[in-house]
Amino acid sequence: MSPPASTPVRDRLRIAIQKSGRLAEPARALLASCGLSWRESRDRLFCYGESLPVDLLLVRDDDIPGLIADGVCDLGVVGRNVLLEQGGGRVGNGAAPAFREWRALGFGGCRLALAVPDAWDWQGPEQLTGKRIATSYPALLSQWLAGQGIAAEVVLLSGSVEIAPRLGQAEAICDLVSSGATLTANQLKPVMTLLESEAVLAGPVETLDAARGELAELLLRRLDGALRIRHSKLLLFQASRRVLPDLLPLLPDAEAPTVMQLDGADDLALQALCHGAVTWQRLEDLKRAGARGLMVLPVEGMLA
Ligand SMILES: Nc1ncnc2c1ncn2[C@@H]1O[C@H](COP(=O)(O)OP(=O)(O)OP(=O)(O)O)[C@@H](O)[C@H]1O
Ligand SMILES: O=P(O)(O)OC[C@H]1O[C@H](OP(=O)(O)OP(=O)(O)O)[C@H](O)[C@@H]1O
Ligand SMILES: [Mg+2]
């Protein structure tokens, strides 16, 4: 996308993140783990990138897709729910897609679900025909209803959607669910999942210009490394060669372990990068299978 004539060309990359809210801190922490650091402006709405020419813009999450579409920022961290809702809304209005998901980031997990009063005997989506459904996600709900071939009325609310059935504004709702506590507190039950969501790195559909494109590539490489090792641990231990066939099946999530021979012909030192949880239970299983001197180390960084 070429910037409007009045927009000066930028050679610094600009990333929008939520100013405050669920995604604010994890987004910042993830970018910091990619080696980015910033100096904050006094109004705390803009952070100037110090370690790399990558600046942060602190905004409401709902504004992030539009800022990317307008070229005001290059990338953004936002819920998939918001990105797809706004994308659906734009396409519904005849606009071309301007932003897309570049990476799933593994935090901010929730789902967009359809919920009905506990008392309903839920038989299936056709029960929604002619009903009013309250939601803050009209585009995603309308798409889903159209896909199911159901004619229902979409009632738009910007928040506190779960209370709508009790207020008589709607018979059902479609909203984000995480623990399910808000639904339960409002005597509602989830019956369909429309979307599994998490925080994503969003970027433009079109490629960025050379300078910012290179910065974005660098950031993506670091991000992929950071995401890959997020739950990884380095496992060090020793074992006899003959128990290796018993140990390896206990490490299904490990990259091919490094095996070093120790002085005694039968003695090995092993080093395995495990991408799944290394629990106490797992360590005890490995010990039982013949591993000795087990040690679990955190992984600070990785570049493939
Ligand atoms: N209950 C939840 N559990 C986990 N993640 C959630 C939950 N609710 C929302 N999210 C995710 O976090 C994102 C941000 O939620 P938050 O409540 O902070 O947004 P907001 O109130 O719209 O903030 P803003 O003030 O920036 O507009 C949501 O779009 C969604 O992707
Ligand atoms: O399943 P749960 O864990 O209960 O979470 C779901 C609730 O969380 C979000 O609301 P939030 O707390 O952000 O309030 P808001 O919608 O008024 O911003 C969402 O809109 C649901 O209401
Ligand atoms: Mg918001």
UniProtKB/TrEMBL annotation:
InterPro entries with a match to the protein in the record = ATP-PRT_HisG_long (IPR020621), ATP_PRibTrfase_cat (IPR013820), ATP_PRibTrfase_CS (IPR018198), ATP_PRibTrfase_HisG (IPR001348), HisG_C (IPR013115), N-reg_PII-like_a/b (IPR011322), N-reg_PII/ATP_PRibTrfase_C (IPR015867)
One GO MF annotation is: ATP phosphoribosyltransferase activity
Give the first-level EC class, as a single word. transferase
The annotated pathway is: Amino-acid biosynthesis; L-histidine biosynthesis; L-histidine from 5-phospho-alpha-D-ribose 1-diphosphate: step 1/9
Residue ranges constituting the ATP phosphoribosyltransferase catalytic domain according to the UniProt record: 60-223
* Protein known as: ATP phosphoribosyltransferase
HAMAP family from the xrefs? HisG_Long (MF_00079)
Q: What role is this protein assigned?
A: Catalyzes the condensation of ATP and 5-phosphoribose 1-diphosphate to form N'-(5'-phosphoribosyl)-ATP (PR-ATP). Has a crucial role in the pathway because the rate of histidine biosynthesis seems to be controlled primarily by regulation of HisG enzymatic activity.
**Gene it is expressed from:** hisG
